[in-house]
Design brief:
A: 687 residues; four-stranded antiparallel sheet; 14 strands; globular; B: mainly alpha; 2 domains; 59% helix
């Protein structure tokens, strides 16, 4: 099966090469057969990547330890559930998995648009084939997951060997979220290839209008939703597994996932400027280019070892390949832009500083500044070493100090932006939309202060959360009230109807509400408490309202590990509340230890108990207890963000179609399809 | 062994036990000051032992020789009442500047602190400039710098109509 998988990858490489070279020829000659054959080569590439990936899955499930990658990342006792995750737990497999997810997107695009968009698709096919070719080069020649295990034999020959069992999966990855976090994150990374390909294709083809934006809107939102879910699942994994009491440590790998999310968020907002007003065309094209480039840059940073990271399992000497691809992509983007920049001229003017357009500009500014700040902070240790021969660390305190004010500014714009009118906002409208939310926001600030909230940023964050939540609530309320007055339905039914009439706008508001909930959760970190103690039987650890009684220790033997458990009874006001069992696991296959944190979570706070192991000096178990307020709001907010994005992906329930009769003049129609000369259909606009 | 000899030994044992407890890594985090100063240091810098790069007081790798030793040193110095700056400098001398969890606000490191706010302020000025410029620009200016039309308004309108027909957005 390893030979089969390897052969499929080689064939995929050949097909992708043909799709790229043949595609360029097809664009030049416009020969229909060549166009068709290159599209089919693109589809075949995807099919072959699927075959290769399923071959690797088969090798894991059949415990084939003659394959080096399988032997290094699995063992017989590993559960089937984690054998799935083992596929992307190392460099070679994760790169194949990357190709696999990209192939799903490419396959979907090539199939969905096989009879449509004839003027754009050959260009799109070429760009997608180019990206696939890069990853297939890595899969085939640099980091093949199908290499057999061998030992140096006599006369310099390599003898193939098969081990009876593998080294096992990294214990940190043996956690349910690790089965869903990387696929989500990688789906985000790879998904941004689609808007990138369409943007570059539209630029190269000089295709007028916003068709590439319309075509890629859902792809961009799908990629963004995956990226958001992936980031949050990663944060939850770090929280539940790493056992340091936090969920975001500003690790370079975490930062790398945040970078395309930030620029992708900016892109999702700024495209509305182009759709509504025909403005910011250059900006949008470059935003989507940068988002794709940041995906590649992030991968380079985390796999090259340029910056230190806890994700060391993914590091290798693969960096120069990513640098080469990055440079090549930048050159292609610059060349395409330079040659066709006149086609990106803006059409409209701005009427007022107090307008939706301006708010989008500021929103983009803040998102981009966040992106640059995170990127420069991540790379600063490298720069400092270059310039001063002295490595300077940039850890969480720096990022918190820089990013908290920027984040709060973004939260403020989340509340303000959507309620400003396109063109110009009147003073009356400002009073109507922001009067009550501002007043109630200030009152809530005073209330929080009276309740003892003295941390400046936390107080400001809570105030802004109230303000933004109210602006969103009022938008739903006003719209639902109008529908209710017409139809007589209840307010909730009317709000639902309102959402389904303009899913993009109200789905966006739901996503904004999710962000508000996330910010509430983040502000809770200002009030974290922790206690660390060496414990014996009967030791009581006090933290805020809880008394944790150490009741005992036991050992639990599972198939793949042995767990030392602490048995802790949690009491509140003298009454028993619950039992917690924090674990310390030992995995004999790879002789590594892992923690399993016991978390009692509520909307108010998380009681987070870590059995950190035994102090080598005293031999006593060390327990670290944290009381982390409002953490649950982050996970719930994340779900709301993804739900809002899914709502925004739904088609509007009642689109207003206006059919204008008449034929369009025939001028300049040579590069467009014949369908262009028929009736035009205007659709309900989106906000 | 006489009672007179046992007593000092028992007392010495208690003192020893108390001292060992006082400098154990677990206890090092019990004082707010140690926690606050430890928050400015990283674990695992410059050694291959524990490269977690976590905040020193958050390193949960029990048995990590780095954090254990560093926390002991920290606790001793805090117990001595040394000023924060002296304690941090002591760690810098031993491990280099990379031991600090944030860049110092001096010299080249100052760039790290200034740049984000420079981007923000510079960007805001740029946005205001762009808004100003765009608000003065004549409408429907679809022309290249040499005033030759890149895409005609009619052509663009028809492309948009086609896009509306062919996309379900």
């Amino acid at each position: 099966m390893d030979v089969f998988g390897s052969f499929a990858l080689v064939l995929a490489f050949v097909c992708a090469s043909y799709a790229l070279v043949g595609g360029i020829c097809a664009i030049r000659t416009r020969h229909p057969l060549l166009v068709k054959s290159t599209r089919q080569a693109g589809i075949a590439t995807c099919g072959l990547i699927f075959v290769a990936t399923f071959s690797l899955f088969y090798l894991f499930f059949s415990d084939n330890y003659g394959v080096a990658y399988v032997a290094a990342h699995s063992n017989r006792d590993l559960s089937s559930f984690y054998k799935v995750a083992a596929l992307w737990s190392g460099q070679e497999g994760s790169l194949l998995f990357w190709s696999f997810l990209l192939a799903i997107y490419v396959f979907s695009v090539l199939i969905a648009y096989r009879h449509k968009n004839g003027e754009l698709m050959p260009y799109v096919g070429v760009v997608l084939a180019g990206v696939q070719l890069f990853f297939l080069t890595l899969n085939n020649f640099i980091a093949s997951p199908f290499k057999s295990l061998g030992v140096a034999g006599a006369n310099g020959a390599v003898d193939l060997v098969a081990r009876s069992d593998g080294s096992g999966l990294n214990p940190l990855l043996q956690y349910p979220e690790m089965v869903i976090h990387p696929p989500n994150l990688y789906s985000g990374y790879t998904g941004f290839t689609i808007p990138f390909a369409f943007a570059l294709a539209a630029l190269l083809a000089r295709y007028p209008g916003e068709k590439w934006i319309h075509l890629t809107r859902k792809w961009t939102m799908i990629a963004w939703a995956f990226q958001s879910a992936g980031i949050l699942l990663g944060a939850h994994w770090a929280y539940a597994v790493l056992g340091w009491g936090g969920y975001w440590g500003w690790d370079p790998v975490e930062n790398a996932s945040l970078l395309p999310w930030l620029s992708g968020t900016a892109f999702l907002h700024s495209v509305m400027m182009q759709e509504k007003r025909g403005m910011m065309k250059v900006w949008n094209v470059w935003l989507v280019f940068c988002t794709f480039l940041l995906c590649i840059l992030g991968t380079f940073l985390t796999r090259s070892g340029v910056v230190s990271s806890v994700h060391a399992f993914a590091q290798s000497n693969i960096g120069p390949w990513f640098v080469g691809f990055l440079v090549l992509t930048i050159l292609v983007c610059l060349g395409a832009y330079w040659k066709n920049k006149d086609y990106l001229a803006s059409e409209n003017q701005l009427d007022s500083v107090v307008s939706r357009e301006s708010s989008f500009l500021f929103n983009n500014l803040v998102l981009l500044v966040s992106c640059i700040a995170v990127l420069s902070g991540t790379l600063f240790p490298v720069f400092s070493e270059w310039f001063t021969s002295n490595r300077i660390s940039v850890g969480p305190p720096f990022f918190n100090k820089v990013m908290i004010p920027i984040g709060l500014l973004l939260l403020f714009l989340t509340g303000v932006g959507p309620l400003l009118a396109w063109g110009k906002t009147s003073t009356e409208s400002l009073k109507r939309n922001f009067g009550w939310p501002s007043i109630i926001g200030l009152i809530s600030g005073a209330l929080f202060f009276a309740l003892g909230v003295r941390e400046f940023y936390a107080l400001l964050c809570f105030m802004l959360c109230v303000f933004v939540a109210l602006t969103i609530f009022m938008e739903f309320y006003r719209g639902a009230k109008v529908i209710r007055s017409r139809g007589g339905a209840s307010l909730i039914e009317s709000a639902f109807d309102l959402t389904m009439r303009n899913t993009r706008r109200y789905g966006g508001y739901i996503a904004h509400m999710g962000m508000v909930l996330i910010f509430v959760g983040l502000a809770g970190a200002a009030f974290n408490r922790d206690v660390q103690k060496e414990v014996e039987l009967g030791t009581v650890i006090q933290i805020a309202p809880y008394d944790l009684h150490v009741q005992g220790f036991d050992t639990k033997a599972e198939k793949n590990y042995t767990a030392d458990r602490l048995i802790i009874e949690v009491m509140k006001a003298g009454k028993p509340l619950m039992m917690l069992y924090p674990e310390r696991r030992n995995f004999p296959a790879n002789q590594e230890n892992g923690t399993m944190v016991a978390i009692a979570s509520s909307a108010v706070h998380d009681l987070y108990v870590v059995y950190a192991g035994r102090n080598p000096e005293t031999g006593l178990p060390v327990v670290h207890v944290y009381l982390n307020p409002l953490v649950k709001w982050i996970w719930f907010g994340g779900m709301v963000v993804v739900f809002g994005t899914l709502v925004a992906l739904l088609p509007n329930r009642r689109a207003v179609l206006v059919v204008a009769a008449g034929t369009q003049p025939a001028t300049d129609s040579s590069t467009l399809t014949p369908a262009l000369a028929q009736h035009s259909i205007l659709k309900e606009g989106h906000d | 062994m006489t009672k007179r000899r046992i007593l000092p030994r028992v007392a010495l044992g208690f003192v020893g036990a108390a001292l060992s407890l006082a400098i154990s890594p677990a206890e090092a985090q019990q004082t707010d000051r140690a926690k606050q100063i430890g928050g400015k240091l990283l674990c695992g810098v410059g050694t291959p032992i524990c490269q977690c790069n976590q905040i020193l007081t958050q390193c949960n790798h029990v048995g990590c020789q780095n954090s254990t030793a560093m926390l002991k040193t920290l606790d001793k110095r805090v117990a001595k009442g040394e000023p924060e700056e002296t304690i941090l400098q002591g760690f810098v001398q031993e491990f280099g500047t990379a031991v600090l969890s944030e860049p110092p606000k001096t010299g080249f490191s100052l760039v790290a602190w200034i740049m984000p706010f420079f981007y923000l302020i510079g960007g805001a000025i740029l946005v205001v400039f762009v808004i100003n410029r765009w608000s003065k620009r004549p409408q429907q200016r679809l022309a290249t710098p040499n005033h030759a039309p890149a895409v005609s308004a009619d052509y663009l309108e028809r492309a948009r109509a086609q896009s509306a027909r062919e996309t379900d957005d």
